[in-house]
């Protein structure tokens, strides 16, 4: 603490600190880094699907037939997958968001004392030193070259010099210098806290897949209750009415039969497979340092057609790189210094005690070329008021000691700073240099000017009346100035470090038809130049505009955005407005970012993507976090989402076929008052072999097809032919086989068991037909897949334990003949429906369109 400047302020007393703590004016804020455990559990447990399946399972268990209730385990599996996967994501995110518990130096009762982050109170005098994050909003009391990085709050990547009276905001970081500040807002009242408060409310990701499934479930909810009642009534009648059913206990079988129809209509396997695939995709992405916080966001990845990129932290890594110097040749009739001499001077100019970001970039770049600290006589550090720094290099023996160093008898002054400031203070016409500076700035470079002034041995500069003649060197050291005889010799070009993978990643998105835009708080000209370097728009010149020119009307803004690739000077609220405008034009929007200023837009986007080094509040509202902050992971993220959705659409037809035929069979049973033709356990066995397990394998196959909205309509059109064919096959067999075989299915339990076993075989074969249709083309592993599961179904019937548990009977004798005839008829029905139903569907749609 001894190196702190001497100050007269004493700060708060102990009593004043205690009073503020008692009043709650302490720098403490409740911050949630991610969803709570309770939120995750509730979101996965209390679903419409779980409610329907649980009610059906309770009904079956009430009858005592626990074997027919095994379908209920899908609730536990499905819910467990969702909870475990999202809890793992929460654990990872919380670990990422843990900040180093830093202590800060405050001035109290005339002494400097260290206090923790939440020990700072309102009106505290706080020291902000280089490398520290500002813990609370404050006003600058005194500054010693404090320079802040406020990009997390504003999106502006350039550092900001602070002077007395300026505001500093929590969340910004001191990159050089130091300052004494007076705390003006703490805790929830600070700028960063108020900005992120709007993003606190949790918003569930909208999933087209889950939305389609929920549409089916809602429809089934209205259908299931009355149909279940009708099924129970019809099954009671088949055993002789209520009195007989209650007296004999056959009401239990009536309930089980009714549930068989109800459960078949619920695509529980599709819900489970969706969760499994989302979880597998999340785990695969996690191996590539990509954290998926919500499983549904995997699907959103497939639908993204518009990607808004934050420049700093996404396209660039936030750092500055030294590119080169540009020699200015002759200026003012004097030959410029050799390049080596200028580069050495540049190194020494940047080599301050606490260099800023640009200075560090210069030192790093020249250090790689072998440059090191040279001998200098005097240093004038950079000042935000002057906009330049200087060094004096001696050409002869030094004179007497001075506060800034030893004054040389003769030497050279080297200047480095803002070109417009230095050029305006020296003689000559420098229009050509200014043109060069503007051209490089427009190309996205940060431009500094190096100039030099030589002074002879003790040459007098002026002799004011009543004063002794003053030499050049004396005057410069006493009051640093720009000499009119200074000569500009070179331009220093620095630029933001562009991520090496940025151009390749953007090219991938262009090929995939995803429109990318860069939205930044920086100057639009600078951002446009960076967009040009990374070929944001390919061979086309990217168009850019200033956000201050954007309209507030969402529809008008959306129209303008169609022709804009880069937007600069964007405020946090404008980023959200841009997302809203793109939504209004039916885009599926993804938004990347790392700062607090990005949180609102990330939350509003269909898919929020935060960098691993992002602010905790930003990571909390994002659905996807790139843990290692690598932009190059995004293609993997999108490709994985597309694989899941393209394959899920392929296999969803398998599950909806079951929904269609279960609904039609239930309706046929109610209308014709026959016993239900199969048991819930039959559906469990057949569904696992012809739908569930094959679908999971098919869903993991490679597939990069871009997802197109309209999932539910396409799947329903696919499911209708197979569902109708299966329902007709089962119902025709149930209506005709008892008469042909002489079975009394109303009075004989054994005959009813034979019919149900035969119907189970018909269901299984029809399931294999549908699986073969979904798995096309059947060459290679897809054909083998169908063959393996078809064989597994037959082999399972031959295993005594399996056949007893699932009530499966291998037909023999005349029953076998009848079963083979029924299967042949089923194959014909399937072929007819496969061609007739789609044609009929298209005809009906055409008629509706022409009305």
From TrEMBL:
The keyword Cell wall biogenesis/degradation does not apply. The keyword Endoplasmic reticulum does not apply. It comes from the Bacteria. It is found in: Cell membrane. Signal peptide: none annotated. Keywords: Membrane, Translocase, Transmembrane, Transmembrane helix. Residues 105-197 form the P-type ATPase A domain. The chain crosses the membrane at residues 40-63, 69-87, 216-236, 256-280, 651-671, 683-703, 715-735, 755-772, 784-810, 816-841. Its main location: membrane. It is a multi-pass membrane protein. This is HAD-IC family P-type ATPase.
